[in-house]
Amino acid sequence: MAKKKTAPKPEVVVITGLSGSGKGSVLKSLEDLGYYSVDNLPVELIPKFAELTHDNPSIAAAALVVDIREGDGLKNFPKVYASIRSYHLDSGDIDEVMHLIDTEFADQIAGSPGFVAYHSIDCGGGDLCTVSVFQDEAGAERSTEAAAEFVRTHLSHMQLTRTDVKAGKVDVSRAASEVLEPAHA
Q: Model's pTM, two decimal places?
């Protein structure tokens, strides 16, 4: 059976700069290229803007200007939270676990409010680690609850035991554009 192809998530470009630096010209050029554009958006509204563009199927890309004079507001952007869960598989097939995560869980969590990223890692020796990243702490906490429910309902025929959960604010992050494309087990 062919896997349903998911639509790519909209790209969001944030433009900042000093007065007279050409922010408006860049925004206008992006608008001419088909970007949904917003000028002078307060930093506090960026997560909601990203959520709305993500949920709107008619928006393929968005751009916004943030005034560099936002000061302390810029220090808080972007603020994301992660939940890191560790598991050990005593009985069962790790490839089957990864396949079920891919086909039954990853898209579910990706549709959750405030979703940023999800990764499932085969650490070898029956160990598995998952990382959920959300725009807010509540989203990261909900992902831990959703993962526990998924293990109960979809993996109960295996002996998969959660061994640790850690969560917190992400302070340093980098990602190549390739990591933004879904990978499948």
A: 0.63
